[in-house]
Structures
1.
Amino acid sequence: MRLIFKQIKAPLGVGVMNRIKQLFEEKKNILSIYYTAGYPNTGDTIRIAEALEKSGADMLEIGFPYSDPVADGPVIQASSKQSLDQGMTLKLLFEQLKDLRKSVTIPVLLMGYVNPVLQFGVENFCKACAEVGVDGCIVPDLPMVEYEEFYKGCFEEHNLSNVFLITPQTAEERIHKIDGLTNGFIYLLSSSATTGKNLEVGDTTETYFSRIQNMKLKNPAMIGFGISDKQTFDKACSYANGAIIGTAFVKAIADGNIEENVDDFMKQFKP
Amino acid sequence: MKYKVNEKGYYGDFGGAYIPEMLYPNVEELRQNYLKIIDDADFQKEFHQLLRDYVGRPSPLYLAKRYSERFGANIFLKREDLNHTGAHKINNTVGQILLAEKLGKKRIIAETGAGQHGVATATVCALRNLECVIYMGEVDIERQAPNVARMKMLGAKVVPASSGSKTLKDATNEAMRDWINNPVDTHYIIGSVVGPHPYPDMVAIFQSIISEETKKQLLEQTGSEQPDYVLACVGGGSNAMGMFYHFMDDEDVKLIAVEAAGKGVSSGLSAATTYLGKEGVLHGSRSILMQTADGQVVEPHSVSAGLDYPGIGPQHAHLFKTGRGQYVSITDEESLDAGLLCTQLEGIIPAIESAHALAYLEKMEFKGGENVVVCLSGRGDKDLDTYIKYFNL
């Protein structure tokens, strides 16, 4: 706790140990949970983060909703729409996260599409992330070349990790390039799919996971898309540093009994 | 070549390929191959043969006498409405289906708004015996029933897009999701000059046949291949880009792009993107789009389903920003009135999309004798219900 408190106080950018990096150094089989900010109710964003940390999640990915989420399946789309209809904006999200680090110590990433970031302003976005204690971002439709040219400097200045996705179709050369550009982890998609499909580890998926393992990348890898429960989580952990659950969790909290639902959902992962 | 795409996939500040990694291999495959394939002599031969024998090109450039008298200028109509399937959309689908075959794809997907692009895609899929899935907004399925039936007859599976506003924008999202889930065997035939690079350029190249022919036809009919004005309607902007393409670098030719004002640009029910929009990213490219301060895409409105889109292609954004093109808008009512006028003066029932371009003639001032080309992008059969309701026919 004290160590983390110190990090926040340290000058931005220089000599700060990013929470993500620290987590991967200290722990195996990392469980990261995705949820949509402002869903099921606008005021739930922080409550969910606190409940998740309390019940054992290692890392959080908070989705900032977008009207046209092309990489997402129906469940996350619907949660995004509901959140937007209820008035969620990126500005409001940063207000909600103002005291994030008073109660949440695990790494937090923001995940969303590039257009809201552009309208907020890249510089302002990075600054706001750093101010509230966000450790990294996942922006699936931000291309690598754009990131390198226009975003990287700003992200690094604010000590933000930018996480890239790779799929079974991503060429080896490109994976190495991604590995060189990022400093958090690599988001390994179990297959080329939108979110909310089931993980099926057939021979080809296994070959792909092993291929990535054998590439000896400098960054750790997390498997995402298709992980829904303890069983799929464990399977994913045998190939990577951990895994990310999104759709299944978003479904589990739909009725608004946050603490109870989070606890119920997370029970299966307790040793 | 000032207005064409650069090697990074940009038109000035606009364009690029803002796509999730899942789409990268597909789009990259296309980027590396599209020019090579299109420039190939065999491809060109087959493409032009199909355009001639199947689509019915060249489409006539018709000097509309009574229109000309009314406006005091030589008004030429580029008759894309006479193409097989009734609109310019088929130019692009013929090109892309041949390209998909060269890439070894077995399955075709497409989005559609009014249903014209869906029909044009289903048509070429029937022609080349390829599996075809069309995404169409639930709302559009209801208001364009005949086109849905045509697609089904042609053997396509029509999948309703039930997310968001249930119109073209959402059909495009669904098609992109399909492509993400079927990355290897599927080609996505985007119907307009939108989407990630190289789509805007590729679709513009296939549609550029419109201005290529127009130049030749003008030379034959007027002794000069250079008109004073060219006009076209803009939703995503494919017929306009086809109409502008070979005139872009000739700064003496004025380019007028007509957007749909819907119920009026300030009414909250509009699709006048350049007037209401800001720079942003939608459907894989950086362009101008209608959005909230928070960057959420705003639902557009137009009586014409084909113009009911919250963005414009990146090349249009570039023409707009540089001032090379003049972007104007026409309301629902103005377009319907213009549709009736065209029917009564020239015996041509235009698509309501094209009627937007025709309507702008009323707002122009001519000295007399100017040569004006209007792209009559489609025929109005599909819009009869709307005309019937509006005019109590």
2.
Amino acid sequence: MNANGKPKLAMYWASACGGCEISTLNIGEHILTVDAVFDLAFFPCIADFKVKDVLGYPDGYIDLCLINGAIRNSENEEMVRLLRRKSKLLVAFGSCAYEGCIPALSNLTTRDATLRAAYLDNPSIDNPAGTLPQPHTAVPEGDLEIPFFYHTVKSLDQVVDVDYTIPGCPPEPHQIWAVLQVVVAALTQGGSLPPKGVLLGAGSVAVCEECALAKHEKAVARFYRPYQIRPEPGLCLLEQGLICMGPATLSGCGALCPQVGMGCRGCYGPLPGAEDQGMRMLTAIASILDVSGRPGDNELDLERKVEAAADTIVDPAGTFYRFSMAHSLLRRARTDGVEAAVPQPAVWS
Amino acid sequence: MSPERIGVYVCHCGSNIAATVDVEEVALWASEELGDRGVVVARDYQFMCSSLGQELIEADIKEQGLTRVVVAACSPHLHERTFRTACKRAGLNPFLCELVSIREQVSWVHTDRAAATEKAMAVVSGGVERVTLHQPLEPLHVPIHPATLIVGGGIAGIQAALEIADSGYPVYLVEREPSIGGHMAQFDKTFPTLDCSACILTPKMVDVGGHPNVTLLTWSEVERVDGYVGSFTVTVRKKARYVDESVCTGCGICTEKCPVRVLDNTYEAGLGYRKAVYRPFAQAVPKYPVIDRENCTYFQRGKCKACQLFCPTHPKAIDFEQKDEILQFQVGNIILATGYDLFDCRRIPQYGYARLANVFTSLEFERLCNAAGPTGGKIVLRDGVTEPATVGIIHCVGSRDHNYNPYCSNICCMQSLKFGHLVKERTGAEVFNFYIDIRTAFKDYDEFYQRVLEDGVHFVRGRVAEVTDAARLPGEEGKLIIQVEDTLLGKQRRIPVDMVVLSAALQPRQDSTEVAYTFGIACSANGWFIEKHPKLDPVATMTEGIFIAGACQGPKDIPASVAQGAAAAARVLGRIHQKELALEPVRASIIAERCSGCRICNNLCPFNAISYDTARMITEINPALCQGCGTCVAACPSGAITGTQFSNEQVLAQLYGLLLLNVSSGPVQQPQPALVPA
């Protein structure tokens, strides 16, 4: 804290969409309280700060630093290492920082393929020279350098030490406000901080707990995409063949999606101790697949039926690991050494 | 440093392990490399399972204060109990002992000694990491209900029922046909002694029927089995007989007065007739008839009621309004003795069954020979009068044939020899047996074969190609010609006969897979019920409390079926006498605070241990029903279900050890768990 006695707040985005900032501002009139309580130290989304401002702070100057976004390139990594050094409490804010989220789906392919998709092989791209981003470009004025695009997208805790995690894509405003209140109480009134490493701003059970739809024993013969059927109101979506990640997803959001007929996407991540959200949901889906098999059925026939039923799930990796790829047991797809072919520059910190 | 004091014991298993794995090296490695992980003593020994081997462990537990034990030896299936018991004797909770397999999973599947030794080290390392997280557990005790359900009233089921009932314990005997007796009740003589089948069977049937400890439920089928060993809840459908058993005297007047004659495909194998209200055979137990709804004039056309009209009892025993009854009762154990079906000989068209009149199945022939059968025991052609002058008996019809059943049906050789003898005895006809091999391996069986040889029965070694009525040579007109390669003479023969008997294969019951499903046991690829161990546990199954006896387990003759019936009864009686059973405490449990009530697991449990509490809106597991299979543990997307001794932490720790991430000299350097390189 500096002379005016106010704790310092920072919020930074790494590889992110900006939704986390919007959700933070969505806490409504409470934002006035945040302004009254905190001094902003670094918040590129809403105030003009430069990296050199941060470099000028003494270590540990920032009391609370919220980082959203995944670690996609060398700039992301440099910035979070810097902010870690300058911050007392560092929070992985939102799904990207927590577990990689959408950016980490590119871990299913290679760096090369990702760059091709973004700069070459796409009908909306006009790039006749086939130019790809280069870390170094020599121009008459000197050597230009841009951040290095990593092979693998990482979560924040895979790069720096993280004090707390707030899940969600984005975290719900009421949860953000609740967490801020706890931290503020601790910083200004000497309340106790939650133990290091915990998830904040979330429940402790699965989304189903908060979901009012009626649940029954499940036997699903095939799955549908949301546009293919009109779900029966009031009835569990998973039972109706709409993929809902609710059972494998931590509560805290209030089950907003399933209650308006859209299956839970799983953005709050796995339950503590459930390790791997995608795998958990896959085994659950496998357990409720009903191909009307009877004991003694021909195994090959059964296998075909199971495969046909499973094939009704479009893009399983993107469905089950939509948010959690970087933090899953898989972490990324095998590339058999392709990634080692492109040397990666050292990162300062 | 690990807080535990772990002992590692590496078994040579004679040369079973030691020939492929350097066991001394493994023990030495464990004591040096896994010292940081809590290993305070590591030994190798010739036979860890011997008394001396076990004493080694016990002494270390007492003297070195071991808190965990890892035994690297054979599969836990074989000796887990041995080593757990040894630990228990030394005062260590038996579940703090982990048996890792370096025989089935290492020495028996590898040839490269160096690689196998390295793998054994990894396996031991995994065991050490896992056992560190083991919890002391206590077995669950469940009481055993003294009643037993026996399914199937053939000779195996009858024997089992009598053994248990005679010991003073209640038995429910469920039979789907109107009478008990099974296939044995259809036979005339039994090999090798040629006793009259009915004469030795019916006294046992009568005993069962009148036994105070036996509840006989014929014309009934088991619909559902819930619960677990010691406390099964059985649901039985008692089909409507349309005869009030409390009134009927079994006088038989209804049968006499019934105007409808029905071809009897079950008991008479299609050779004889019965009425629409009938008792399958004279000595049927129970004595009450049953109305065959499909063929009864009243049920089909709404009038007749002759049986009711003439029924002499007051009130009338015939009750057209009777409905199926659903009965529910508790039993502690179950014996399945559901028998076999006969191979359908029409599946081999070249043998002419159902096309050539005088081709008979073995069961038809049994009925022909039977004094109470359709011909009064006269062996005659399908016309009912002509005695055959020559009879051909074909062995292995549908057995030992990759087109139908690969297995030997066990009884057909002796049955065919018996047929040969009966033909000789009753008609003096010439008899030809067509066989592949003669298998007469049991007591007095080969003597019987010699006797039949002396009777003058001819034996032709070769599989019959065809049975035809197309005469080609003089003397073949009007005959059935058996075309066969006589492999002893090395030439084709055509043997004209008047009658052909097909010794048909024994097959699993048509609905055996559904029955297996109902009772939660397994069937082999052929459809026979699978025993727990083919040699050492032949009447138990992998499901606790469910036993099997007789031909439902595989083709079997009467002596073997009786032996199995008695054996299953002995196993059940042993259980009942224990009064309670100690169950493995390896169980799944739900952390209630973490269950969201999503109900994914609700219909997965093969043992019906999972139920949903509608008031609390969470799912619960009944620990006594749970068998610890782990299906729900894997399915729970919330990680709310854990398996005792198979927690995530334990499994991951074992992997950590297996990958040698726990030792500094392991092939993979210890990673920094939090920070991951790009």
3.
Amino acid sequence: MLSFRNWGAGGDRGGAWFLAVLAVVAVAVPVFNQAVTQSSPFHLSAFGITLIGKYLCYGMLALSVDLIWGYCGILSLGHAAFFSLGGYAMGMYLMRQIGARGVYGDPILPDFMVFLNWKALPWFWYGFNHFPFALVMMALAPASLALVFGWFAFRSRVTGVYFSIITQALTYALMLAFFRNDMGFGGNNGFTDFKEILGFDLHSDRVRVVLLVVSTAALAASYTACRAIVQSRAGRVIRAIRDAESRTRFLGYPVESFKLWLFVFSAVIAGVGGALYVPQVGIINPGEFAPINSIEAVIWVAVGGRGTLYGAIAGAVLVNYAKTYLTGAFPEVWLYVLGALFVLVTLFLPRGIVGLASGRGDEKR
Amino acid sequence: MTVRDKRLYLEDLTVSFDGFKALNKLSLYVDPGELLCIIGPNGAGKTTMMDVITGKTRPDSGTAWFGRGIDLLTLTEPEIVSAGIGRKFQKPSVFEQLTVLENLELALSGPRSFPKMLRARITPAQQERIDQVLEIIGLSPLRASLGSILAHGQKQWLEIGMLLMLNPELLLVDEPVAGMTPHEIERTAELLRSLAGTHSVVVVEHDMSFVRSIARRVIVLHEGQVIAEGDMDKVQKDARVIEVYLGV
């Protein structure tokens, strides 16, 4: 007899491999950076660490998109908004950490506020000098937006392409808002020139390594949490909603509430990814809210294979690796490649790279 | 037997849509454990009657009692489901991307909220119930198959199984054998016969040979009223039935 524990066992093997790879990254990166001397060809540069760290953060965004799109059929084309909000929360903390070392030397006000002739810190900047407070906000800000937005959207039974369009509008509206100087988030320059995190120099290799290890841990924890959700009985309800929403409602399940919980949780993962992204790349600006970013995240998931979680993360890493390479070697072709990739995957690889790797046997389960 | 011993008791139900009387002082009863077939031409009021019983349509007048003292007309649709009335619609609608087992598990009674479902585990008793229902609907060998690969008949049985998970006292089954192969029809007849006794089963069906094969009691509806009642042979000899339904 089949035991309940082994359901979705096809995904478990891939998931175990994925966690193993993450563990290897978390060990290998510090070794190749810290233990291998700089003169050695095997030395991993600061640039390399940052690149890997960036991919891991994108992996969290991909994971959050896959959780709602792959399992519940909610196609968000605005998920980068939650990523960015988490990033801004971290950015605000890092800005307050600069303190009096800014260009204008104001101990309280960040440079851009002095430049705008502001006399006092806006109320919503209070508390961000405390790391625990900022940490809470990294999750709370995206969660609140997802809660309010999702509550209205799901309660009004906005689904399918209409939902996708309004999420796109949401992130676009946020981008325009964050571009404005009087919003108090640095306008189009955003936040940059960070100095320290928790008193440690952000430019030292050692801190970069630690941030990367924290990112792998966060990704592994998020993945494990997502997997626990989709393999629980709630996960079955979520897939039932994806297949036949009204039928699920007829069985007595509060469909809107399930969607809202999942959407909020997904936003938190995206937000934490964004928060880890900012100290590693050293900048956050309204460009992160650009609609194309959210669409790219969806493409990562499609390429990797939706509804598998680890496939989405693999997709994020692969597509971004291609992006890093192509935007360096042939900058003008990147967008065409991205578009073609999406079309080809949709037409020929509906289950993404993971589907290709696991072959037909997986279909029957 | 008195009125109070009936599983379902409908009296003088009238439903009119813009002057058209879909049900016209309809009265009928269903005994506990009985397998009752309801036939009638299109527009006779069969679906409307089901809608009234399940709370989807409210009648203009009349009463509908379920078991001892449950007034169906005061309950909402979900309340009627939890009171013990399960309805199977004509079109099969199982979850295609879930396995047979998962489909049945979704229909289990129990917690419905996200936080509770997150922690909920299948208890041994529930597992036993699932296995039992799998046996009844004959899908044990296909328990790990996705709903999408099931044949039409198997989907219908799975859906009946999902109703059974809630342990209903009364099952309403709308045209169960439409589109089935002769073999599937035979299996469905067996299934419904095996359910009678432990459940009251009301079947609405057009297929005469199927009705003949399962029903002990047949009710013929016409223009919202019962025009004949009895076993299939008696009903088929009834002059009015021949006139309105079976054709001369």
